[in-house]
Amino acid sequence: MKNVAVLGVGMSRFGMWPDKSNADMGREAGMAALGASFVGHIFAPVMSGVRVMKEFGLTGIPVQRIENASATGSAAFAEACWAVESGRYDVVMVLGFDKMTAMIQSSSASTDSGNLEDAILPAGFFALWATRRMHERGTKAEHLAAIAAKNFNNGALNPMAQRQSKEKVTAEKVLASRMVAWPLTTMMSCPIGDGAACAIVGRPELARKLNPGRPVVKVTASHLGSEKYARGHLFMGPVVGPAPMTVDGAKSVYEQAGLGPKDLDLVQVHDAFAIEELEYYELLGLCAPGEAEGCIERGEFALEGGRVAVSSDGGLISRGHPGGPTGLAQLWETTLQLRGEAGPRQRKNARTGLCHMMGGGSVCVIHILQRD
Amino acid sequence: MKPGYFTIPDDPSEPPRLLGTKCLTCGEHFFPRRAICARAECLSEKTADVEMGPRGTLYSYTFVHFPLFGSMRVEHIGYGVGQVDLPEGPRVQLPLAGKQEEFRVGMTLEAELEPLREDGGNDIVIVRFRPVEAGR
Fold first, then answer.
1. Residue among A109, A131, A232 minimizing CB distance to B69
2. Which of A4, A60, A132, A180, CA to CA, is 20 to 30 A from B38?
3. Closest chain B CA to residue A126
4. What confidence score (pLDDT) does residue A108 get?
């Protein structure tokens, strides 16, 4: 990918906002002046994308909804980037919004015995990944707690984060929080929330023209892939386990951008549960298989003093995970960091960032952004 | 063959079996049933329905400290969930019967039916796995 830049980003703080509509949040996150719009939402009703886009004026532009579970915003961003790269549009807005709180309230006890996701809490599935890791590698709950504590403390520096702790969060506090699905506690799990986030992509010369003097952030790699069959693949319930598609996706984006994991200054991952972030360190090549626990103990992925900052904005665990906008929040964070506009959580001289999202455990979307 | 994901034996003392598919070209087994072999190297449409289990090996487990969605039964306030490897090959993700202390990776389990709630005179049942007691 050679000819795509992020022209702008915006967010509406994630949280539980019963009095805000999707349109309110979408308008807060978005901006106008566009060639087309790709809208991502999971839980909102049919045609919500077009309706929310009317908040920006009715201009006749193409509006297209894209959905891919947790990876919805990232998948919409990927399509927008390829639409610009291919020359189809000069500027595309990617808007993600969702009210997960409304979805939870409307889903009644209508369990279909064939649909496990209706019966079992998502944390239950991801806890299976943690138990297996503990069995194979001797991982401790303390390692998961350390990841969550790091993300909470990063999120405290992010004004758009849903969970902002006033005092420093310790691993002990994470371990003492309520057990959801052993060994995962509430503080090792992302919260339910509402929110919106937006990114506008276009040709790099437009970025230079619109904001002369401001660093230009280019999208240099974009990958969207689904699972390949391997023995042990789970066809019912979300796929949890060491997913080769993250490895394949990482290989693809490193090749596209002509760099490797050692060149990354910051990384955002799908840390809906702390065990996921631990596994993605290895699957993205940030460390070798079996080394994640040691890296956590040495603080190698800390915002301050770490060799690469992971979940610098608090991740899904602290910044939040409303659904449609989540992947765009990662791109918001990465763009601010690469421009040097991330305030108290700024990584010094950040030049290269990677954003990774999973959708339903069955699709993987990865982008690399670089300061020009 | 009966519809759905598992058999409901006429004899209540008989364990249910999982309904899956065997690829007649490469031999791979799948759960639940499917029309086309999922292996990228195969993709054969020559498949057959098979019954699998009822026993399997515990690959991983957890214990969820929240109610089972859709259940009206008090014992479902907390419940086990496991990934179970069937001898035919597939790995399945299902609720577990028993306490957390009873589960360990590598143990043998057996499928059983579990009523979730009554709906218009019919029991809504799910399949779950229970650790096999020593000597059974």
1. A109
2. A132
3. B62
4. 44
Size of interface A-B (CB pairs under 8 A): 112
- Token readout for B8 is 């409901």
Q: Note whether B69 contacts A111, CB cutoff 8 Å.
A: yes
Q: Which residues on chain A are in Cβ contact (under 8 Å) with B72?
A: 109
Average pLDDT, whole number, for chain B? Answer: 88
Per the structure, the count of domains in chain A is 1
Structural domain span for residue A59: 5-103+191-371
Say if the Cβ atoms of B34 and A111 lie within 8 Å. Answer: no
Structural domain contains residue A138:
no
Q: Which helix (H) or strand (E) holds A91?
A: strand A91-99
- Tell me the pLDDT band of A235, cut-offs 50, 70 and 90: confident
Q: Whole-angstrom Cα distance, residue A36 to residue A63?
A: 6
Angstroms from B16 CA to nearest CA on chain A: 14
Instruction: Sort out which chain B residues have CB atoms less than 8 A from A179's CB and list them.
Output: 65
Single out the residue of A353, A350, A319, A347 nearest to residue A158, CA to CA.
A319
Tens of pLDDT, residue by residue over B36-71, are 999 999 999 999 999 999 999 999 999 998 876 665
Q: Return the pLDDT at A238.
A: 72
Nearest-CA distance from A346 to chain B in Å? 38
- Is the Cβ of A103 closer than 8 Å to some Cβ of chain B? no
Domain assignment of residue A278, yes or no: yes
Instruction: State whether the Cα torsion A287-A291-A293-A297 is positive or negative.
Output: negative
3-state SS class at B63 = strand
pLDDT at B67: 72
Which is nearest to B21 in space by CA: B54, B42, B51?
Answer: B51
Question: Quick one: pLDDT band at residue A105, thresholds 50, 70, 90?
Answer: low
User: Phi, psi (5° rounding) for residue A162?
Assistant: -70, -45
Cβ-contact A331, A77 below 8 angstroms = yes
Taking the alpha carbons of A145, A151, A156, A161 in that order, is the dihedral positive or negative? negative
Predicted confidence (pLDDT) at residue A109 exceeds the cutoff of 50? no
Which ipTM was obtained for this model?
A: 0.87
How confident is the model at residue A316, as a pLDDT?
A: 98
Domain at A265, CATH number:
3.40.47.10
DSSP string covering A189-234: BPPP-EEEEEEEEE-HHHHHHHSTTSPPEEEEEEEEEEPPP-TT--
> pTM of the full predicted structure?
0.92
Domains of chain B, earliest start first: 54-131 (2.40.50)
Please say whether the beta carbons of A152 and A187 come within 8 A.
yes
pLDDT recorded at residue B133: 78
Comparing alpha-carbon positions, the chain A residue that sits nearest to B87 is A232
